[in-house]
Amino acid sequence: MLNNWFKKEKPFVGFAGFGGGATGLAFGGSALGPKTYDFGDVITGLSKTGAGVVAGVGNLNQDNSSTASWSGMTDGQIGNEFARHVTWYKSSTFDFGGIALTSGHGNTSDPLGAKDVAIYTSTDTTNGTDGNWTIQTPKWIRKSYGAKHSTSSTYLANRTSAVSSNHWILGANLQQDGANGTGGDASLIYNKHGGAPIHDRIYFDDVKNVKGVRLDIRGKWSNGHYSGEKPHITTGYLFASNNYAGGELESDSKTTCYIDPGLTSDNVNFTDQSGNGYNFATNNVSNNGTITYNSGNGGHIRCSAGSVRNGANVGRGGSGSFSYGCWVKINGGNSNGDGGVIWYGSINTDQHVFVRNSISVTGTMAIGADIQGSDNWTSQFTKDERVNGYIASVGVSNWFFLVLRYHEDGLIETSWDGRPFDLQFTTDRARASSLTYPFGVGGDPYNDNNSSHYFGPFFFYTGIIPYGRVLLEWDRYKTRFGRTGDPDYTSSFPGN
């Protein structure tokens, strides 16, 4: 079982990691190390400074509406340490575990992304420039897989840098807002060419008591169109670490609701296995439509034009972030099977995050989160395709495992079938200011997204659920729900 693999003492170097002869993510009899590398909460309240800046580092935002750039470089030039850099810093200390970066801009002749880069941290800087700086070794990198414009088709993230073993190469993307259903909103983070999320995601060992994180920029991409152009970076998110600690999900103190329909004693009542008393029942007066129990697949529940509710509020433990997930089979095994899938919140503005099938594009499992003050249902992507394409490739009659993570700054990520989390978009708004709201599956509180889907285990988690727990849940139930194989990690770097 995966749970046992996490308890091994053998060091873990990443799913397709670096150094030490890494062989990639090990399943099926090999040992997975003591932790998986993952992002935790977005680090907020940071100031920025830089050196060699042409377009100010203030343009390096958590969206793709602007770009920062550094002084020009000739083709093949490798710059000096810290001659071109950006530093994120704050007066209080924070723990650092990873960064998501998007390199490039909207130039259709050449996106001119940054190339050879490295991360340094300081525990004593006061202004992002002074202090002592220690280079950090990447433990796992998941490269950007947004489809490239023809001018940047070879601009792929790469582990092998011309500078040092702790530097790596970012990818580069042609940037443009407003494509693929984003409605032109600058706070959404998609690539014009292909629509998939566009960040290179870099993970490190947890670094404690940090005051500054510096990105050293040594090189630029060039296709020969500009001999002395500037390296550009568009988005930058810093994250705390979020390494898996072991144990079953329902026993985690941050799990405030965990329902496995198969554990019912009477086919009517479903006890919250987290011990928090957030129970459900087929005959609860708060349900909408008809809710029934079925013993197939180890036990599951079925909505019939309704929503599964219990009339209570699920606690968030004071956290501004939350996560939820469920096993779901789409109504009738039909990609056009509509209706809500999983939800949290109320019907008030800025007070909910819902997932619904077939509202924007058939089969996409779109996310609705009152984006910029009104519902704008946004299609999900997984790896290099929209979710409707992924579901079609697996087979719409199958069960699927969906997990969503909402960061308190508005960033939303999702994982499908145990895959690493994909950054979907950021609402750039406060979400669910009340820390207790209802949670359920099927439909939603509006009563206009009624569902007839099938549901296996589902849960609510305060804070950002570790990816290792998601892997464990996939491995735990995949056989029960007729799925086989291990998650797809092909968009990670090769081990070298």
Task: Give a verbal description of the structure.
With 496 residues, the protein is mainly β. The protein has two domains: 201 residues, Galactose-binding domain-like (Jelly Rolls, Sandwich); 229 residues, Sandwich (Jelly Rolls). Helices cover 5% and strands 33% of the residues. It has three helices and 29 strands. A hairpin with a 4-residue loop joins β24 and β25. The radius of gyration is 22 Å and the shape is elongated. The two termini are 28 Å apart.
Give a summary of the structure in a few sentences.
The protein has 496 residues and is mainly β.
User: Mind describing the biggest β-sheet?
Assistant: 11 strands, antiparallel
Number of strands: 29
Q: How many domains, as an integer?
A: 2
Radius of gyration: 22 Å
Helix segment tally: 3
User: Given the helix and strand composition, which structural class is it?
Assistant: mainly beta
Alpha carbon gap, first and last residue: 28 Å
In percent, how helical is the residue content?
under 10%
Supply the CATH architecture of the largest domain: Sandwich
Strand content: 25-35%
Shape designation: elongated
| Overall pLDDT metric | 84
- Unreliable spans are 1-34, 178-187
Q: Which class of the largest domain in CATH terms?
A: Mainly Beta
Stated plainly, the CATH topology of the largest domain is called: Jelly Rolls
